[in-house]
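Take just one protein record:
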Amino acid sequence: MTMKTYCNQFESNYSRRDFFKRTSLGLGAIGLSSLLNPGMLNAESTASAPSAPKGILGRPHFRPRAKRVIYLFQSGGPSQLDLFDYKPLLNERNREELPESVRKGQRLTGMTSGQASFPLAGSIFNFKQHGKGGAWISDLLPHTAGVADELCFIKSMFTEAINHDPAITFLQTGAQLSGRPAMGSWLDYGLGSDNENLPAFVVLVTKDKRGQPLYARLWGNGFLPSKHQGVQFRSGKDPVLYLNNPPGIENEDRRRQLDHLKELQTLQYDAFGDPEIMARISQYEMAFRMQSSVPEVTDTSDEPEHIFDLYGPDSRKPGTYAANCLLARRLAERGVKFIQLYHQGWDQHGGLPKNIRIQCHETDQPSAALIKDLKQRGLLEDTLVIWGGEFGRTNYSQGKLTETDYGRDHHPRCFTLWMAGGGVKRGFSYGQTDEFGYNIASDAVHVHDFQATLLHLLGIDHERLTFKYQGRRFRLTDVHGKVITPIMA
């Protein structure tokens, strides 16, 4: 079927209802955009132009404190009670039954709901206070302890989900069910990119790690245009799949191919008005530019010896957590707006002491090195670094409790994450849990509060960054969420 025949067929099926729907909505959008923000009218066309694309907002709602985010996501749920939330009472009452007055009938997972008892499990690791702020950090994290004065702890996080998939989806997209855009996609949609040759949203996953599965939808665009989806960089010869030219194809050939393809797709867009066609053109052009920019940013051979020493020996091994932290710094230097690292394996239902040591050995030095490296380059001030998982762990043991071994189940009621740089207070702790480490005692922070705060630090009012889909205006924070102003510098 020729394009002309296809267009004629479309016109014959184009109903009166379609005409009024498109015309009324289109004219309304034109009028509204001219009143609210003249730059929004051209947002779609500028997004496909060969310059750093701007977002739908045109500019932030107010002065941003951060320009970019590096999110070190620890998949599985790190045990806050063995890392940051020091509870000496648990050691004093080790093996005693969790009081019902503390549990208050909280829902349990299927992994512990059948347990006959819930013995309190104190941490076998030693805690000390570090820095001028006196942050409690366990001896599992000596390097993190060394940068304590740069960190802002939130010890009163809570979530609504008790199992991994809905919990990680909730934190990344603002909803427990899949299908919503990821945080990085919202930022790309709202603010655009600071580098025309790299994606605004890049994902790095530690290679060869087992744990709860990670799905591409966690960095997907949801109902936003597909150009806003995260791009996963992999270790090895081809960091981005299908980016390189096939054998026998030169860059000049690819350029001509893209030019001809753009002509055809522009005709299709003129006929149907589908914005995904323009998004596809934009993605093709970005892929072409990435053929030179991606090899340059992922090649760390130009890094000096002292930088590899800072991040640790694993930083020389592509795809490790340490190497990804170093790559995250390189991406931040080049203006990538949202860099998401995923590190699996934090799900210690049993054998926690042994396995959490492995996790901390892999992540402690690189995480702290990233803070130091950003600071020495003057990047920490406007880069927001986040470290944390999807929920916490229980104060009672899952399975058998011994003097040297125990496990902890999922605990959504309270957990800890930390931030650094990007406009948050240094050497500061916000929120408290009760003496059992089971419930929040003060200053609770919901997942949507955390997301609203993240957007605020980037200059976005979370209630005003919306996208109309299926008759409703959606946003990252759904229908609630408040900015946690006490943590801001």
